[in-house]
Design goal:
It is a single chain. The protein contains 16 helices and 23 strands. By secondary structure, it is an alpha/beta fold. Among the domains are: 6-82 and 265-328 and 466-501, 3-Layer(bba) Sandwich (FAD/NAD(P)-binding domain); 124-153 and 343-444, Polyamine Oxidase, Chain A, domain 2, CATH 3.90.660.10. The strands form five sheets. Strands 1, 4, 5, 13, 14, 15, 16, 17 and 23 form a nine-stranded mixed sheet that branches. The chain has a seven-stranded mixed sheet with strand order 11-10-19-20-21-18-22. A hairpin with a 4-residue loop joins strand 14 and strand 15 (296-300). Helix 2 (55-66) packs parallel to helix 10 (266-276), helix 2 (55-66) packs parallel to helix 16 (484-501) and helix 6 runs antiparallel to helix 7. The longest helix has 18 residues, at 484-501. It is globular, with a radius of gyration of 23 Å. Bound molecules: flavin-adenine dinucleotide. Residues 51-57, 74-77, 82-84, 98-101, 285-286, 313-315, 318, 322, 344, 346, 436, 441-442, 445-447, 473-474, 482-485, 487 line the site of flavin-adenine dinucleotide.
Length: 502
């Protein structure tokens, strides 16, 4: 029989209704000024408390339960899935507003999905992509030498040279310990932008082209991220037998954007949570973690859990918003102050059909400028309705995010029509957007980014447990950090870590 955590007074079901009454309970201020529930707040005991019901936390919980341990999962939102979120587009179909693609070497998310009955299908990638840079508009196939990267004649030599240089460095990169990489200090003392300036023939041109890539990939600009972080990210795009490459990271064909999950990526979390049942508690934001020599007390707004260990499976910037007693070691605390989230919004326009396919287009465009830098076909497996999605990331997000929604929508649709040279894009049947920077329990996306100095000075604190506190979340993964696969891997790692200690 599956072990169940013992919950006093009442056991909450994985639904918001059960917790609503508890959320209304009065709170008192502690000495530290933090808000703490009164003695009336329900309590529970378990072997392990898990903070966060995204893929990382749910994977950890699933593994721990399978190993015979009792678990309580505390999730701040009224839903599971974290940075994955299905949006209904009618007739039982969905388009993802968060993470969605999987690809070769991402075997951990694909295996977890299969375990809970979720299969994959190929992302639509038939036909030509469009590249627009100033007055230049090129249609190209990603079956060429450069894959998804555009064959811009002015930048071709640099694109080939720089991607080869990065791949060579990534091939020998210690993914679990980036701070021990050859020339780590040198690489971590510069940004991607400064490295490009020192290594390319047409630096301004390459930096302009790189911006839509980094905006979509990490929600940031080439000048925001340390070059060591970029190498770690590229090296991470592989597995124990396939070194990470720039191409696997960026490409649809043979790369990280090759496939999608049937029914939408959030279903994986929903199915894992359903199997965990009443061990998952929604609307329970964790505010405080106190540990002693013998146990740990995790205080949320609606439940206080005493456990032997706690898994904090939230992005570092969110982990930093929890109070810890005693305080975390300085290296860990300072690390979490240095890993901000990227700035990313996903915009999606729904049409009766994916009409661009009949014109021989994949729906993918890459453009220098905004609001959208990169678009793709996000239609359901049967191609009905048609969905065109785009990323508004980095400075584009900061520029367009605060503008009125109607103005932003008009600009996005006008951009689609201009780039595809097709006015049908101006009249979607539905338009929706998801700005992850406005999400209280994500504060940005798709992942945390590291600026210069972070990994070499504070990186060792990323995964190191602090007593009974264990860190999970995609940002802590060696392979596929930033991705769903990395989230699953991190949950598996932390379950092994705790399993050995229990
Ligand atoms: C727009 C976008 C596009 C993306 N595209 C892709 C893609 O195509 N492919 C891919 O593989 N990945 C993609 N990603 C990234 C992927 O979604 C994430 O890497 C992955 O979902 C992270 O899982 P996680 O469990 O580590 O963290 P999260 O999903 O962030 O889960 C953390 C959970 O903790 C909860 N939480 C936070 N603070 C607290 C607290 N104090 N108390 C209790 N609960 C708390 C949150 O509500 C959340 O549910 C994308 C992300 C975004 C935003």
């Amino acid at each position: 029989m599956t072990p169940r955590a013992r919950t006093s007074r009442r056991t909450f079901l994985a639904g918001s209704a059960g917790t609503a009454a508890v959320l209304a309970l009065p709170t008192i201020a502690t000495k530290a000024g933090a808000s703490s529930p009164t003695t009336a707040t329900p309590t529970a005991t378990a072997d392990v408390a898990v903070v966060g019901a995204g893929l990382a936390g749910l994977t950890a919980a699933r593994r721990l339960v399978a190993a015979g341990h009792s678990v309580v999962v505390l999730e701040a939102r009224d839903r599971v899935g974290g940075r994955t979120l299905n949006h209904s587009i009618g007739a039982g179909k969905v388009a993802e507003a968060g993470g969605e693609f999987v690809g070769p070497t991402q075997d951990h998310i694909v295996a977890l999905a299969a375990e809970v009955g979720v299969g994959t299908f190929d992302a639509y990638d038939t036909g030509q992509n469009i590249y627009v840079n100033g007055g230049q508009r090129i249609k190209y196939s990603d079956t060429g030498l450069l894959g998804t990267a555009p064959p811009d004649p002015l930048l071709l030599v640099d694109i080939i040279k720089l991607s080869q240089q990065i791949d060579q460095m990534a091939a020998k990169f210690p993914v679990a310990t980036p701070w021990t990489a050859p020339n780590a200090a040198k690489h971590d003392s510069q940004t991607l932008a400064t490295w490009v300036r020192g290594n390319s023939l047409n630096a301004d041109g390459i930096l302009a082209l790189l911006a839509p890539f980094t905006q979509a990939l990490v929600g940031a600009e080439p000048g925001d991220v340390s070059f060591l972080f970029v190498l770690a990210y590229v090296a991470s795009a592989g597995d124990e037998t396939h070194p990470g490459t720039f191409e696997r990271l960026f490409n649809v064909r043979g790369g990280a954007q090759q496939s999608r999950l049937i029914g939408g990526s959030q279903v994986v979390s929903e199915n894992v949570a359903a199997a965990l049942g009443s061990q998952v508690h929604l609307n329970t934001p964790v505010r405080r973690i106190e540990q002693t020599a013998t146990d740990v007390t995790v205080t949320s707004d609606a439940l206080v859990v005493t456990a032997k260990h706690v898994v904090v499976a939230v992005p570092p910037a969110l982990a930093a918003r929890i109070d810890y007693a005693p305080l975390l070691p300085a290296a860990r605390d300072l690390l979490s102050q240095r890993l901000p989230m990227g700035a990313l919004m996903k915009v999606e326009a729904v049409y009766p059909t994916p009409f661009w396919r009949a014109d021989g287009l994949t729906g993918q465009f890459l453009t220098v400028g905004g609001p959208v830098g990169y678009s793709f076909d996000n239609s359901p497996p049967d191609g009905a309705p048609g969905v065109l999605a785009g990323f508004v990331g980095g400075v584009q997000n900061l520029t367009w995010g605060p503008r009125p929604a109607a103005a932003r929508k008009a600009a996005v649709l006008a951009q689609f029509a201009r780039i595809f040279k097709d006015d049908r894009f101006l009249s979607p049947s539905e338009y929706f957007e998801m700005d992850w920077t406005l999400e209280e329990w994500s504060r940005g996306g798709p992942t945390a980014i590291a600026g210069p100095g972070t990994l070499t000075q504070y990186g060792p604190a990323l995964r190191a447990a602090v007593g009974r506190i264990h860190w999970a979340g995609t940002e802590t993964s060696d392979y596929w950090q930033g991705y769903m696969d990395g989230a699953v891997r991190s949950g598996e790692r932390v379950a092994t870590e705790i399993g050995a200690a229990l």
